[in-house]
Amino acid sequence: MKAIVAHEFGAPEVMKLEEFPTPKAGPGQAVVRIHAAGVNPFDTYMRAGTYPIKPPLPYIPGGEGAGVVDSVGEGVTKFKAGDRVYVGHPVTGTYAEYSLALESQLHRLPERTTFNQGAGLYVACGTAYHALYHHARAHASETLLVHGASGGVGIAAVQMGRAMGMTVIGTAGTEKGLELVRREGAHHAFNHRTAGYTDAILKATNGRGVDVVLEMLANVNLAADLKLLAQFGRVIVIGSRGDVTITPRDLMARTASVHGFVLWGISEADELDVHAGISAGLENGTIRPVVGKELPLGEAIRAHKEILEPGAQGKIILLP
Length: 320
Ligand code: NAP
Fold this sequence. Notes:
Shape: globular
CATH topology of the largest domain: Quinone Oxidoreductase, Chain A, domain 1
Distance between the termini: 10 Å
Bound molecules: NADP nicotinamide-adenine-dinucleotide phosphate
Number of domains: 2
Largest sheet: 7 strands, mixed
Radius of gyration: 20 Å
CATH architecture of the largest domain: Alpha-Beta Complex
Number of strands: 15
Order of helices and strands: EEEHEEEEHHEHEHEHEHEHEHEHE
Strand content: 25-35%
Number of helices: 10
């Protein structure tokens, strides 16, 4: 099969389009013909060798995708060849024509959801759902700030927060991003590259502050987030690329808290809940995956550069 293969960790250029042996399904496993693969920032950290998880080399990048079950191994009962699925955290990477997954890593893709939309479901929607429901324990009467709302996770969080009945504030760094954030359901949108935008956020809450912050770049924003919180506010750290200094009294004064998680560490019960939520959201139309850029598989290098650049507009996907 054709696959993107990294023989060493390093710059995006370590990834090469190559012929690679097609995986075979062992007991409890399935091989999925990948129609579209989701590209995520963590793919770039893993490729660079800076992520806590280092796969044995050579490896195929890609932690999620969508396609059709090609074959199943002994003991697989819930799926059969021909089923439309999305995969999350599979055994072998999704930047390839075929990916090997455990039965538990397969999830049904409804007919109305395209493979391109399904490619980025797991990480974006799974993360947003886990943050909002399991960590923030958010309520309809609360105000949500999605700090970095124009990317994969942010758009999903805006859609879910709005569907829950929350007052949603989103930020983006470009006009197109701000338009997208408003279109997907934010009541207010602010540019995180404009001086004084945090004052504007506070003003939009009439000075009360926000109850929940979903933070995509904590090393830049955490100190300011704490000052934006209402009493009993929660910051959920989703993304961070370095260190930050905070004023702990900002937390104490508000009886506030900061949570962090990685999706890979999710419990089995929460994971079941996440996929039930994604399935329901796709069915009732509250989850509407936004694909900002579709690139051929051979352009993985470009995808890894562009995912880290400003100007996000939903997911970037690769088409094998
Ligand atoms: P993405 O699609 O690349 O989007 C990045 C988002 O961050 C965009 O909305 C971008 O806005 C925004 N951003 C850029 N500069 C910002 C700033 N100064 N303040 C606030 N936001 C800013 O990435 P993603 O898939 O949504 O993931 C977002 C982050 O969460 C990444 O760091 C990723 O590694 C992390 N993540 C963590 C988990 C986990 O398990 N904890 C899971 C998924 C993702 P503009 O481009 O419009 O400026």
